[in-house]
Amino acid sequence: MSADKGRYGHAWDEDAGPLVRPYTLTRGRTRAAHADLTLITLVTTVEPVPDDREAGGLHPEELDILRLCVRPQAVAEVAALVHLPVSVVKILLGDLVNAGRMTARAPLSMAQAPNAELLRKVRDGLGRL
Amino acid sequence: MGSVVSSAAHTAVPLPAAALAVKILVAGGFGVGKTTLVGAVSEVPPLSTEEVMTAAGVGVDDLEGITGGGTAKVTTTVALDFGRITIDEDVVLYLFGTPGQERFWSMWDDLAVGALGAVVLVDTRRLDSSFGSIDFFERRGVPFVVGVNRFDGLLDHTEEDIRAALDLDPEVPTVLCDVRERASCREVLLALIDHIAARFAAQN
Ligand SMILES: Nc1nc2c(ncn2[C@@H]2O[C@H](COP(=O)(O)OP(=O)(O)O)[C@@H](O)[C@H]2O)c(=O)[nH]1
Ligand SMILES: [Mg+2]
After folding, report:
1. pLDDT of residue A3
2. Quick check: A20 and A84 in contact, CB under 8 A?
3. How many angstroms away from the CA of A87 is the closest CA of chain B?
4. What is the residue with the minimal CA distance to atom 8 of ligand 1?
5. Cα separation of B25 and B117, whole Å?
6. N or C of chain B: less Cβ packing under 10 Å?
7. Which of helix, strand or coil describes residue A74?
8. Which member of A37, A111, A121 has the closest CB to residue B4?
9. Considering the domain boundaries, does residue A83 fall inside one?
10. pLDDT for res A34
11. Of the ligands numbered here, which is closest to the C-alpha atom of B152?
12. Which residues, listed in sequence order, are joined to residue B145 by a DSSP beta bridge?
């Protein structure tokens, strides 16, 4: 992965602790391009997933995310499955959405859609547990 | 719908209708059974992820510059357990559990946005470890129920004593539970949904 050093500017400094690598991955940015990516925003890859040779502009972690999200996944699930902090994954996902490689679906919230119908559905679903 | 959705909508692969998410939070002090509850009801192996916090609990933006070779800032990560329950083809419920501790409140603020409600677990031997979580949801008006986790079936206090010690409002339900049992967790979650529905009905 020596190409990454050139692209991202910094070598991976083990002494500086585990946070350096994730934020190197995001080119030092700590804020997502999209503030509306929540933990339960569902993200889905726009297929086809590029193969390794076609993925010139993509980081291996971004390719992993694209492969993972061929079926919708919540942002929190993606973070857990790729072993990166949520805040880092939100930045990567924001880029992928901006690049048209993923779509994002906002969660239902009671503030937007407070309704008895939703509660009844959730109650019925939990009753089947 | 936010800008993310609209900006990429033209390239969207049709999502299955399943894809609208709601969430419930699971709070309470260390060791009260949050991770156990999430694992007991989740349809997927419960996952854990990390959120990065600065030690002072201020915004993650303050991590800016951490790659720049300057002095390293003191950071801490907090584990976030989550599980998933597919309700039907339209709705997916996510459960999030993480310690209710003061230094994590900035993260709880984000977690609470859009949540249906919360379960605060208490251990009767250490009720005080869940005081902070109860305060948090009361202050923000997030509906919650209190799950009294009966470790080893022991219950050396009456439910009334527990309610008094926690200074609970009369309408906040308490449910005795054993979070190792899925059926018991289900009862706690159903009590929460009924409580939310009652509040909703009262407001409309
Ligand atoms: N005996 C007994 N042990 C429990 C019960 N609930 C949780 N535990 C155990 O208590 C410990 C702490 O639970 P955990 O879910 O990790 O608590 P958390 O810190 O709130 O996530 C674990 O070892 C659980 O197996 C219970 O009802 N009875
Ligand atoms: Mg735990």
Report:
1. 35
2. no
3. 7
4. B33
5. 6
6. C
7. strand
8. A37
9. yes
10. 57
11. 1
12. B119
Statement: residue B151 has pLDDT above 70: yes
- A85 occurs within a structural domain: yes
Q: B149: CA distance to ligand 2 center in Å?
A: 14
Residue A87's CATH number: 1.10.10
Hey, are the CB atoms on A72 and B19 less than 8 Å from each other? yes
C-alpha closest to that of B142 among B133, B150, B155: B133
CA torsion B60-B78-B38-B20 (nearest 10°) is 10
Cβ B20 vs Cβ B92: under 8 Å: yes
Q: CB within 6 Å of ligand 1 — which residues?
A: B 28, 30-36, 149-152, 178-180
Residue B79 Cα distances to A69, B98, B115, angstroms: 22, 6, 19
Query: Structurally, what CATH architecture does the domain formed by B2-203 represent?
Result: 3-Layer(aba) Sandwich (3.40)
- Which residues span the domain enclosing A40? 31-127
Would you call A129 and B48 a contact, using CB atoms and an 8 Å cutoff?
A: no
By three-state DSSP, how is residue A102 classified? Answer: strand
pLDDT at A14: 37
